[in-house]
Amino acid sequence: MSVLEKIQNLQKTFSMSPLCSLDKSLPIHPDIIQQLQSFRNETDILMEKCYHPLKIVLMGEVKAGKSTLLNVFAGEAVSPTNVTETTASIIEVKHSNQKKGSIIRKVNETIDGSTDEIYEILSANKGNQDFFSDVSEVKLGFPLANLQKLYLVDTPGIATVTASNEKTAKGYIQNSDVVLWVFNGHHLGQQDIEEELTNVKSYGKPIIAVINRLDEIDGSAEELEGYIEDQLGFMIDEVFAISAYQAFEGTLHGDQELLEESRFPALLSYLDTIEKEDKQVHLQSISSSINALVEKERLNHQIANDTITFLLQTMERRKEEIKYHNDSIQKKIKMELQSWVSTHLLEDEKRNLLRELEGLGMMSGKASYESISSQMNHYLSSEYILEMLERKFSEINTSFQQQWNQAVETIGEKINIEEEEFRKGQIQLYQDTDVPLEVYFPQGENAVADGAIKGAAIGGAYGVAAATYAAVLGPSAAGVTLGAAMGAVMPPVLLIGAVTGIAAKLVFGNKKKNEYRVEIIRAVDETKQKVSNVFLPAMLDQLENESNRIANNLYDQLCEFISQGWTAEELRDVQQKINAYNTSLVRFERVGVSF
């Protein structure tokens, strides 16, 4: 199979992605879908590359000397050293029978002219962000032998002053065949540079490290090359320490000794080998990029699959946790109510009556006993008992809210812990891949806000638990209440007959003191039994109904938020399709190409 045929087959394979043909958004980070779309655009770039010459792209940090190095390759000053960074424009240099160039603008306008005229326009607009924000590329052509087979592309530095520069430089990576990464010899070992190299490596391009400004530092070339090989050897194909300034000066003035001192000839010799095998290198680069693209496609789908698995597990855990809290809260409040009725209801009143009864003497008259009967009437009246029940109802309601609020907080904490453990597990799982983890685990405030609020980033973006609490758990906790309508639980009529009948027995009759004691205890116990038979079932029934309603509503809202409206069955169906698709990608990777 030819490289061209493999790209065509890749496009057909990519068209079968289950993640790119959904009617609604999956609960995964939106960056994954955006990445997949970019992969499809990159297949178009790779297709187009089959019909163009080998491209060597210069990349690296600002002030590393990329433009000077480009001039050395071309053999004359084809790229002003003060233009590229200030314009944030890609400058592509290729062979042409005449010195001519173009400024390609995003509004489909192209400014053509001689190379001198193009430079004049660039210099005149130096620092004009409005002008250069609309410039996508600058193309220059020179009748130079060194450019007959190679394109040389100078990109804006990575650490440039505007974010658009960085995006411009990265966007050109896929369009290259070989990357010359230019290091500033004064600043080796920077962490951000290593991260950028990792990103470039993920495109499957061979990377040649060029350590520039050798003439300005004390260390030897061998020491510098050894340092880069030790630190970044797994990403670098070759390393060359040079002085682009000395090489350019030696080239311009025909100073062979200065040119040798620059150590540029060794780099040029290596590139000559590439030039002689340009077709082979070109096709091999495209093939490597295809493989890298397929691997990133597979990893994106696998991470989406992992995220769906996590979502399903999360939903199941939430069901178990909510059921546990629901059962526990009902059990606790039921025990509290039963204990209150049996050990606290009317107990103080009974003690007061008995204490007053004990204070009566032989000379106490009927009026004293009638006073106790009157108090008994009051204590056992529906109004008095309902007042007590309402106070207890208020206490139970507060306890009910507190327990559910605590349950909600606990659920939120567990989501947070599970999310962090999943994220760490994903990083650990994919840490050995050549694909940069930043693709899958974007950081920064915007990523947190945008990804988490959509419920999309449980597999990668941070702050999902906080967003879940704000969107679901917080409002759920605030809405937890049994309601204030005591009448719905304890209609007054239910107790009137029972308590007034008991009290009436104490009003009439000429009972002895001991008999009154027995009647007081019996009346209170009988009233408590009536309350237990009437009040507790109604109260516990409302408690069960309301607690079940809260539990079901909380679970439904959590699942709706976390899964973005997908049912567990629908998510599992997508998983099956993802697994089948990834299997097809693995089969595709095994198909070789001919050069």
TrEMBL record:
SUPFAM superfamilies recorded: P-loop containing nucleoside triphosphate hydrolases (SSF52540)
InterPro entries documented for this protein: Dynamin_N, Mitofusin_fam, P-loop_NTPase, Small_GTP-bd
Compartment(s) where it occurs, according to its Swiss-Prot or TrEMBL record: Membrane
Top-level taxonomic group: Bacteria
Membrane keyword on record: yes
KW Nucleotide-binding (keyword) present: yes
Main location (coarse class): membrane
Signal peptide residue numbers: none
Keywords, sorted A to Z: GTP-binding, Hydrolase, Membrane, Nucleotide-binding, Transmembrane, Transmembrane helix
Transmembrane segments: 482-508
Dynamin N-terminal domain span: 56-213
NCBIfam families membership: small_GTP
Protein name per its UniProtKB record: Dynamin family protein
Organism: Siminovitchia sediminis
